Amino acid sequence: MSELLIKPKKTPDQDGNIIKVSPEDAGWKYVGFEVYQLKAGQSFEKETGDLEVAVVLLTGRADASTNSKSWDNIGKRMSVFDDSPAYTVYVSCDDKVALKALTDLEIAVCTAPGKGTYEARLITPEDVAVARRGYGSLEREIHNVLPADKPADSLFVFEVFTPEGNWSSYPPHKHDEENLPNESYLEETYYHKTNSPENAFAIQRVYTDDKSLDETIIVRDGELVLVPKGYHPVSNPPGYKLYYLNVMAGPVREWKFTNDKDHEWLLAKN
């Protein structure tokens, strides 16, 4: 199995955790990622320390709070494929985030180094810009949860919906060099969900120009792919819907990327 593929635990631990990847686990410096599946009535708490944290409510409803703010009965979708962006709780460093599940709840906990610049806030579905990107079999829908024009110290967070038979993160691009203004260094995770967990799969390739890294990964529902460097396109076979949650962070909060020159010509067709 690829070292870039992280499979969830078969059953949640006592805290509800099914995936936990720290920067040390991933062999990089910035992005941490965790997934929790909570039963109604179960609680989650996390001290942020020197991190900023975005808790994405993938499915279910919850009460949420930080040291100074609280929000009751947030979240409304029962599947990531419901026609709505997620609710997300953004929390800065030196704070605490807590959630109490009002229904069965799945959350993604996205972390990166923080500076304490911004106050905790709730990002509602109405705050999330939805955009179509690409064309034809390259088209996908992007939910901009925490894009470049929204305040954060390090984190980028996006939800991506790839229709059946389509490609996304395509043409292939990379962001693994500190070479601004042309390219920024950003680590990235892809948390994949499908609308048919027993049958569906996606394909993600991660490769560099010199092919020192060149892996083609079969990804199933609830699995995580690490992208430490290189190009990283995704293919969704016909017959199924594909969702993934992207998290990125690096030393500078700018998203500048380089397209694979072998496939960049496809942009001219759009």
Automatic annotation (TrEMBL):
The keyword Isomerase is annotated on this UniProt entry: yes
A molecular function GO annotation: glucuronate isomerase activity
Pfam family, one: KduI
Coiled coil residues, start to end: none
The EC number(s) this enzyme carries: 5.3.1.30
Keyword Isomerase included in the entry's annotation: yes
Transmembrane regions listed in the UniProt entry: none
Alphabetic keyword roster: Isomerase
Alphabetical list of SUPFAM superfamilies matching this protein: RmlC-like cupins
Any one GO BP annotation for this protein: inositol catabolic process
Domain of life according to the entry: Bacteria
Name the UniProt record assigns to this protein: 5-deoxy-glucuronate isomerase
Source species: Oceanobacillus polygoni
